[in-house]
Amino acid sequence: MSRASLLVVFVLVPNFIFGQTTISLNSPTASHQQGPAQGAQTTLPGGTQSSAPAPSKVLTLDEAIDLALANSPTLQGTRTQIQQNQAQEVTANLRPNPVLGGDSQFIPFFTPSQFSQDVEQFDIGVGYTFELGGKRHKRLLAARDNTAVTRSQVADAERTLTFNVAQQFINALLANSNLLLAQEDLKSFQRTVDISEERYRAGDISEGDNLKIKLQLLQFQTDVSSARVAKVQALGSLRQLIGYAAVPRDFDIGGDLAYQPLKTRLEDLEAKAIALRPDLRSAEQGINAARSQLALAKANGVQDVSLTTTYSHTPGLSSLSWFVSVPLPFFDRNQGEIARSRFAVSQSEFNQKSAQDTVMTDVTNAFEATETNQEVVELYLSGYLKQAQDSRDISAYAYKGGAATLLDFLDAERSYRATQLAYRQALAAYMLSLEQLREAVGTRSLP
Q: What is this structure's pTM?
């Protein structure tokens, strides 16, 4: 080996052995925290760099969720159902309107000459229907119970939106992490290309090996482009959930693909889910609403009383009359609606049991998925990450020193990249399973 080659290997290699990834091999939550790519250096073909402009707004996960809950058009539309139900409460609490009536009889329309003989009769009266059986009160209770069910359904829609935002936020974090890794790999491999060029000029490697290394650079450049597109798409999907006008076009995300071990029992999560899940609460309130409808159906079977007071004027006499009318419930006693309402109560009770089973199943599945993903992440942290990096560094050093083949070097590089990408995928899968567990329990504060 020439003196120039030795100088390249023993001076440049300690500083440029593929660089260091941003994920720490010693701490699961320290150096692998990428955060937003503010002013990130992008290595372009040929080794030049360009600085990406800093985003005008950087969102954390909590901020993204708050913005979505405040600005999502879909959720805002769902919330109007509460106001609609409250308007129905007003309608349910209204009393019947009184009825004003009047008439004129015995008008000699076809014998105009008799108009002055005072033969006409004039009547005017007011009628009112008195609701019996507590109809108005029971209508109001039924409307209020429906409003309570709607509130819980809206809360469940908020729970679903919160999970969707968190899921898309984690996807954006993963895309950003992959982009940073691709940029670091491209920068590191560019240094390897430069060193190989020096070795080729010194006659240490053949032109074919030098060209193979240069062609391999294309894969790194493609990875950067693909990762950049993936991040743009992830941010676009997140912006749609948050509300398109709620954030600027060039917003970015802040946060990390962080590993936080889950330390809780399944029984505690199940108990908390039973107490907090809004869809289960909606099903339980649905039983009360169905019972209110049954009570209203029974009240509607009670016949109302109508009272009318009439003032009448006839030639030479004025008088008052009272009329009372009560339907005779020989046939229609609202028995069909009462029977239907009873079955509706039974249906709501079955729905509540089904909702409770769904809650328990969701919590169990999410808990098991979280534990499984946690085991996968811990496998990487137990030594596989360090082994992948050590293997790549050793192969790189050996290849640059002429002790390893180009095939060994490229294979070690591919294994390292695959391990790093798989680790990021495992972290994202674990964080997603945690979000699924939070959704299943019905709160973001796990015990």
A: 0.78
